[in-house]
Write a structure and sequence with these properties.
With about 90 residues, this protein is mostly helical. It folds into two domains: about 45 residues; about 45 residues. It is about 80% helix and about 0% strand. It is elongated and about 95 Å long.
Amino acid sequence: MNSKQEQTNSETTHLENESSKEIQKDSNKINEQTSDIKLDEKSIDFKDEYKFGWGNYSEITNGRFAMIGFVAIIIIELLSKQSFLKWAGII
């Protein structure tokens, strides 16, 4: 009976060692991922301020106004039940 108890104890310690190794591997992966995130945050550091010419702020603002205009055209066509060009008098 003593040998069976020793065998189960050794199996238990073996399983505990394996689970602790897996936990350590998982924590290493998490540490690597968080360090990658910190590097990415530093590399994407730009200011959202206006400057003359081509820039991030100008492109974002231009894109937003283009989206607003496109939605406005769709709403005009839906409400008037005719094409935008006909509604505007171009055709």
